[in-house]
Amino acid sequence: MYASVFTIFTIATTASFAIAAPQVKERSNTTSASCGTVSQRKSWVDLTNDEKTAYLDAEVCLMSLPATAGFPGAQTRWDDLQFAHINSTNVVHDVGGFLPWHRLYMYTHITMLQNECNYTGVQPYWEELLDSSNLTASSIFDPVYGFGGDGNGTDECITDGPFANVTLHLGPIYEVTDHCISRSLNDNAIKWANQTYLDIVFAAQNYSAAWPLFSSWPHTAGHAAIAGVMLDVTCSPGDPIFFLHHTNLDRLWWEWQAMDLTTRLTDMDGQNVPTAEYIAEMGIYNVTDSWLDYDGDNGGNVTTLNHTLSVLGLVPNATIADVMDIQGGLLCYEYV
Ligand SMILES: *[C@@H]1O[C@H](CO)[C@@H](O)[C@H](O)[C@H]1NC(C)=O
Ligand SMILES: *[C@@H]1O[C@H](CO)[C@@H](O)[C@H](O)[C@H]1NC(C)=O
Ligand SMILES: *[C@@H]1O[C@H](CO)[C@@H](O)[C@H](O)[C@H]1NC(C)=O
Ligand SMILES: *[C@@H]1O[C@H](CO)[C@@H](O)[C@H](O)[C@H]1NC(C)=O
Ligand SMILES: *[C@@H]1O[C@H](CO)[C@@H](O)[C@H](O)[C@H]1NC(C)=O
Ligand SMILES: *[C@@H]1O[C@H](CO)[C@@H](O)[C@H](O)[C@H]1NC(C)=O
Ligand SMILES: *[C@@H]1O[C@H](CO)[C@@H](O)[C@H](O)[C@H]1NC(C)=O
Ligand SMILES: *[C@@H]1O[C@H](CO)[C@@H](O)[C@H](O)[C@H]1NC(C)=O
Ligand SMILES: *[C@@H]1O[C@H](CO)[C@@H](O)[C@H](O)[C@H]1NC(C)=O
Ligand SMILES: *[C@@H]1O[C@H](CO)[C@@H](O)[C@H](O)[C@H]1NC(C)=O
Ligand SMILES: *[C@@H]1O[C@H](CO)[C@@H](O)[C@H](O)[C@H]1NC(C)=O
Ligand SMILES: *[C@@H]1O[C@H](CO)[C@@H](O)[C@H](O)[C@H]1NC(C)=O
Ligand SMILES: [Cu+2]
């Protein structure tokens, strides 16, 4: 239904195809001087069945709690979380703040699971590379220890798994309508998560070059491969797979940062406002002057470490500087 919602950027060079897989220097420690106890974010396939169940139950819990933020149309806490993305879409996509904002959004999600649903487990990620040659074989679609499978029929509603009968209240785009979680699995799109494209992304030598590549390939891969709700540029967090997908993207950004950590803990760049073409193609609202006054970049169109990140109060505003280090104080996790 929203087949063109995610733009595929043009790749200017193919020279980087030959570059080998990155050697990642992960810091590995369970406590950190700067942030305390370090939470380990794990691949979905490395969770035990009990851990998977606890995570899925916590997501169902958030969907069952009543909305409290006063956002228009929101009925549940899940809707509140989704609204923060809907309402921010035009200032957090096609911009330099794309990766930092979604890092804060992943933090918002896990914080709500912990504080409101008593979740004590880790934030898992979907290691899409493992599934990039066979999407439908992925264990994330398991009907018991996963998110259920493909959509069915003209509405493309999912029919099994813990979210089969969930009613979403927000979407499509900016509308407020009741609908199911829809999917339309696409085996071709998941290929954009394969090693060929990761090599292109990891060959980028600075954030300015890297962020559009992250957005184009591994980011588009998960959205377009799941499709349905996941292909709706504003409402995609309605499908809980969104959080596994974007945590994986966050992991990839962190692995890229870790290749030259000293430099890349402060490397920020990119436009602050999406291009007019992007806004028109996505059918999203123009960015207002009042937001530009507040973004922390002194009225400029270049994203800096001072840039304000807002999830509409679900967690306090932060700056991009606050989220550059996943063990910087506000954030305290590692990827294993
Ligand atoms: C882990 O962190 C603690 C506290 O910051 C530090 O004392 C210790 O040396 C670290 N261990 C490793 C293996 O890095
Ligand atoms: C954000 O939501 C408010 C209502 O709370 C609305 O007035 C505003 O137009 C929305 N902005 C965007 C960009 O979606
Ligand atoms: C979380 O735990 C508290 C304290 O035990 C309890 O009052 C609350 O109902 C629990 N919340 C949920 C959503 O289960
Ligand atoms: C993908 O995996 C499924 C389930 O294991 C299998 O039935 C199918 O043949 C596989 N497809 C390809 C192209 O390997
Ligand atoms: C899929 O949809 C068709 C109608 O389009 C329906 O007959 C069938 O029962 C559905 N399958 C499941 C598993 O819900
Ligand atoms: C969804 O509803 C169908 C039909 O009422 C029911 O068979 C199924 O168990 C429900 N699934 C969940 C996860 O609640
Ligand atoms: C990745 O997918 C592309 C097709 O989109 C294909 O040409 C390429 O060979 C694949 N790379 C790997 C390593 O499988
Ligand atoms: C980033 O690297 C690209 C080459 O990958 C280069 O063309 C560009 O000038 C660099 N940008 C900055 C801001 O350093
Ligand atoms: C911001 O920069 C982008 C890319 O250069 C440009 O397309 C857009 O029009 C600029 N927006 C504003 C408000 O200056
Ligand atoms: C958004 O701004 C562009 C100019 O940058 C204008 O052409 C367009 O009509 C505006 N769209 C809306 C919905 O206001
Ligand atoms: C951030 O803001 C501070 C004080 O407002 C300023 O000194 C600093 O130069 C700014 N940094 C950037 C990268 O804009
Ligand atoms: C958070 O930032 C947004 C702009 O991104 C701003 O509108 C809002 O007032 C800020 N909230 C607080 C509490 O400062
Ligand atoms: Cu997004």
TrEMBL record:
Residues 1-20 form the signal peptide. Residues 239-250 form the Tyrosinase copper-binding domain. Gene3D superfamilies: Di-copper center containing domain from catechol oxidase. GO terms for molecular function: metal ion binding; oxidoreductase activity. It holds the Pfam family Tyrosinase. It comes from the Eukaryota. Keywords: Copper, Metal-binding, Signal. The keyword Oxidoreductase does not apply. The keyword Transmembrane does not apply. This is Di-copper centre-containing protein.
